[in-house]
Amino acid sequence: MPGEFELIRRYFDCAGLNQHSPSVVLGIGDDCAILDLPAEQRLCFSMDSLVAGVHFPAAADPALIARRALAVNLSDLAAMGASPLCFTLGLTLPEASDEWLQAFSAGLAAEAAAHGVSLVGGDTTLGPLSITLQVQGLLPRGGALRRDGAREGELVIVSGTLGDAAAALDLLEQPAAALTPNRQQLLERYYRPQPRLELGQALLKIGAGCAIDISDGLLADLGHILERSCVGARIDLGALPLSAALRAECPERALERALNGGDDYELCFTLAEPLWQQHRESLCAWVACTPIGRIGRAPGLTDAQGAPLVASGYQHFRGE
């Protein structure tokens, strides 16, 4: 069994993970990483912890675990309109299994290469399986997509389709379920979320002021925007983008999964209607985007008929 420093050298200080960008002066191998930020750029960063049995099945393919862990963190950068720069990794392991670490490292390297980010440091320790990543990104000075930027009259728009990853969690609780093409598609959405980095950066460039990534469910995450922006919204439930796989696998619960399921890591953003009409084609070139409602002055979140919509997404420490 390798020691901590040999483990780091063998699996993480390697090609595919330490391909430093010009902004990384010093990466893995010292007490700290050193970054040299470009002129007129600001550093933004976010951190998430993923715990086996809470955020992913402990027995899942370690390559998929790694890819998902990095992707969901990069999604936070996408929600700000940031360009990814680098990341650090805190890895707690119950044992140093060569087979597990090789697969995890390969998956992490593949996801890092797909988005042009480098691993610049971190820590490993012994304990229950958990993964903590901090991602760093760059924003132009004075610009960011923020939760407090929604304005009355703006459209509420979402990227991609909603509810797929939540439906996949239902499948993971039924390990004996036959793996049909629809179910495979749902599982792919859970294990391989696509951080909408290009969309976030495009929104920032055209003057959008508000976005969030959907991790805890549309209603919960849109609720954060409404609270921070001191506004309300009406949502057309019939406009929610639902995949054919979701409709086929859980037709009676598809809407609930889309509203409260979470884990899709799509973007929910607001945009003035003239901007949407002007840039719709270019934005949808990155991923399909769908207007689902409109920001209003009165607080609260309702459907198109004015009936209240209440979030019921997962919350840590409350077990719901």
From TrEMBL:
Mg(2+) 4 binds at residues 31, 46, 76. Mg(2+) 5 binds at residue 216. Coiled coil: none annotated. Mg(2+) 3 binds at residues 31, 76, 213. It comes from Aestuariirhabdus litorea. It holds the Pfam family AIRS. One of its GO terms (molecular function) is ATP binding. It catalyses: thiamine phosphate + ATP = thiamine diphosphate + ADP. Keywords: ATP-binding, Kinase, Magnesium, Metal-binding, Nucleotide-binding, Thiamine biosynthesis, Transferase. Mg(2+) 1 binds at residues 48, 123. GO terms for biological process: thiamine biosynthetic process; thiamine diphosphate biosynthetic process. Catalyzes the ATP-dependent phosphorylation of thiamine-monophosphate (TMP) to form thiamine-pyrophosphate (TPP), the active form of vitamin B1. Signal peptide: none annotated. It comes from the Bacteria. Substrate binds at residues 55, 263, 314. Residues 29-137 form the PurM-like N-terminal domain. This is Thiamine-monophosphate kinase. Mg(2+) 2 binds at residues 48, 76.
